[in-house]
Amino acid sequence: MKKLLAFALTIGLGVLIIFALDANTSFDDFGYADLSERVSSRYITKDSTADIIFGVTQDPESGAANIVTSIVVDYRSFDTLGEVTVLFISALGVSLLLGSAVTQKRLSLDFKPNFMLRVASRALFGIIIMTGVYIILHGHLTPGGGFPGGTMIASAMLLLYLADDQFRAKIKSFKILEGVAGSLYVVIGLVGLVLGTYFLQNFLPNGTVGDLLSSGIIPIVYILIGLKVGSEISGVIDNFLTEEVEQ
């Protein structure tokens, strides 16, 4: 009964937060944002004299309705691959220092999480994961993308680690996901080199600016970055919150 009550209170709080944000006048309704306030029309169109209309303009230069994304995941995408590599090296260093033991167990916490904390953390886990997924998938339309979305996913894992002293994720799956996502990022870059003229060149149609399915390879790259960042940081969290089992 206590667990059911805790779960109901958490869900109620989550619904309250969602409705509060939905009623906030500071956020534009999806598809009704003034694109001229976000990007430079001279930057994203081939014709510098053309007006940019959200949801109407076809095949803009980078395709993204977010100028930061246009730079980071289009014109500077190779450099972004380097940033992902830096994160990988950092995670590898932590793994070699703290996660080299064959047999490990959860690190004992100084406090014992109660049932309210454990149940609430699992309810919030889904909300945080979905928010992170939303930020990843809409990175080419609004501020966000793979890095912040992946970090949010990892923060959801951290929440479970701290709220339940018995919880431990399947790290092997994270390692596989991390490797696959990073490899596919490189493969997409090579496809752009083969089909185009340079590494990570866009080879897909840019579509209509503001549409979810637009911006060429940018959404795909952001999904891969989000998966890689989320899995790598989750692995780092596990390394810091586990310890070697004495033989």
Structure overview:
By secondary structure, this protein is mainly α. The chain has one domain (2-244). The protein has helices at residues 2-22, 41-44, 67-75, 77-98, 115-137, 146-163, 171-195, 218-240; strands spanning 104-106, 242-244. It has a two-stranded antiparallel ribbon. The longest helix is centred in the last third of the chain and has 25 residues, at 171-195. It starts with a helix and ends with a strand. 32% of the residues are buried.
Notable characteristics:
247 residues, mainly alpha, two-stranded antiparallel ribbon, 8 helices, 2 strands, flat
The main sheet comes to: 2 strands, antiparallel
Q: Biggest sheet, strands in spatial order?
A: 1-2
Helix content: 55-70%
Number of strand elements? 2
DSSP summary: helix tally: 8
Brief rundown of the structure:
By secondary structure, the protein is mostly helical.
What is the element layout, followed by pairings?
Elements: H1 2-22, H2 41-44, H3 67-75, H4 77-98, E1 104-106, H5 115-137, H6 146-163, H7 171-195, H8 218-240, E2 242-244
Antiparallel strand pairs: 1-2
